[in-house]
Amino acid sequence: xxxxxxxxxxxxxxxxxxxxxxxxxxxxxxxxxxxxxxxxxxxxxxxxxxxxxxxxxxxxxxxxxxxxxxxxxxxxxxxxxxxxxxxxxxxxxxxxxxxxxxxxxxxxxxxxxxxxxxxxxxxxxxxxxxxxxxxxxxxxxxxxxxxxxxxxxxxxxxxxxxxxxxxxxxxxxxxxxxxxxxxxxxxxxxxxxxxxxxxxxxxxxxxxxxxxxxxxxxxxxxxxxxxxxxxxxxxxxxxxxxxxxxxxxxxxxxxxxxxxxxxxxxxxxxxxxxxxxxxxxxxxxxxxxxxxxxxxxxxxxxxxxxxxxxxxxxxxxxxxxxxxxxxxxxxxxxxxxxxxxxxxxxxxxxxxxxxxxxxxxxxxxxxxxxxxxxxxxxxxxxxxxxxxxxxxxxxxxxxxxxxxxxxxxxxxxxxxxxxxxxxxxxxxxxxxxxxxxxxxxxxxxxxxxxxxxxxxxxxxxxxxxxxxxxxxxxxxxxxxxxxxxxxxxxxxxxxxxxxxxxxxxxxxxxxxxxxxxxxxxxxxxxxxxxxxxxxxxxxxxxxxxxxxxxxxxxxxxxxxxxxxxxxxxxxxxxxxxxxxxxxxxxxxxxxxxxxxxxxxxxxxxxxxxxxxxxxxxxxxxxxxxxxxxxxxxxxxxxxxxxxxxxxxxxxxxxx
Length: 655
Fold this sequence. Notes:
This protein is α+β, with helices and mostly antiparallel strands and about 650 residues long. It has four domains: about 40-215, Immunoglobulin-like, CATH 2.60.40; about 215-295, Zincin-like (2-Layer Sandwich), CATH 3.30.2010.30; about 325-500, Neutral Protease, domain 2, CATH 1.10.390; about 510-590, PDZ domain (Pdz3 Domain), CATH 2.30.42.10. It is globular.
């Protein structure tokens, strides 16, 4: 009934809906998903929220929360961060006009008790309604956006909750403006009230973003399970049918990889308003894209790869979790050292999945992997911060980069993906291709779904799969910031690096500093430790005015340096805080390593076979699940046009 009501909201109450309903009602609790059956009706929810958009044009959302109370004081909190994005974002900064009333409809005293908490006087009342206004004008997958046409709402940034009620049942009533045709959410809908969504607890509410406005919905089915691409925004240039066709192939490949479907339905919530990035949830993902995404192969492939990344998280992170994330603490940092597994390994498989699905070529994959290797190798922080420490310090470093970050830190995304590549090759080599990192991830999912896992348990699983003690590998490449040894991986797959160093020449000169443009002036934006600029005492924000008494600009500096060779000592005229200075700097030869992965022309038959087994270039055969019917995808708008069609005439093109 829950799915039926959602479809009534989207479509029309027709035999078409009844046909689709048969595919949608299923329970997969055995796969680690809480059953949606048994959720309380709207009126019985222990906590009830109401959303109003009367001031949408001013980017305001009005939120009210009603709950039962038993104590004289009720403490209410708003999360400070959202799962999947490890930074204290202080969502309470968007809240104003807080008020409360009891069941007698009289005002109750509200006192701010912490940066993200309020204490409400709940004496002599059985219920309280806490109301507040929320400013929503930050467009990202972590925050909220409301304007006159639409709304994009994220749970942690939207809903307060009594601090001791996180396990209570919840309903959210979305009061849409008349001109907004739809709301879409991965939560089940009330049996009685349109645009009212039900959650078993606060975690599930936070995990389910809400779209409001003119949502374009493209349903499709893979493996007997319903999926939806939901576009919101300026999407007239979007090719929804092509996107759905490719998503089906990608989804089928992930199903094949894990061997289990852990959700009852899944939503790709696509915000077509510009920007980028994605955020994973149990049964959906929110992704930012542009209306021009489909207009170029490069941007479209990037979008598909991002979808693959977030979808892989439905298993890795959302259900297979580091033990520190088993219970969210929405008010405080949750420290963990496994983000390179959660994000880095996911970044590795985002690429592997799309090539195995036949959506990108083998060459495309090698280029994408080369990009991660190049990013890792060209970042000085690669030899300063370990993957383990990078994960642990995400709360203060990864999301707050500054001009010196690249010298002292490394990304657990890109370096983590490289670590996964090297680790995968190592396991394949040790087992003569009998086992791989694929087997490790599937075994981890089977063995640690309930309790979560520690770093050592992941290492032990790798040891069990490889048949060799892998702890020294992790100590070297995860616990310490050592350079990767790529030789074993290259030999196994028959690959090579095109990273030849260019000969010393006039065009190969470096200061060892990144110079930016500040109103046409050349200013130092970052400095590499040990470089010529570092040794000459240049500082960040120094302006370089002249080279050997010749006036330069930000555009002419490179050309001017081309007149010299490595080892030459040149005189720079600089300005620091308005004071002129002269610096003598010895120019150096710039290492020009491209780190491009290519297949060896003289690969052995064994190496060719290893590469084929790795990429599964014969095709995932997962297309079988993706091609249950050739014409099973339709936009909601198209299906509404065909409502006169009888159920007897249904040919399978119903999704």
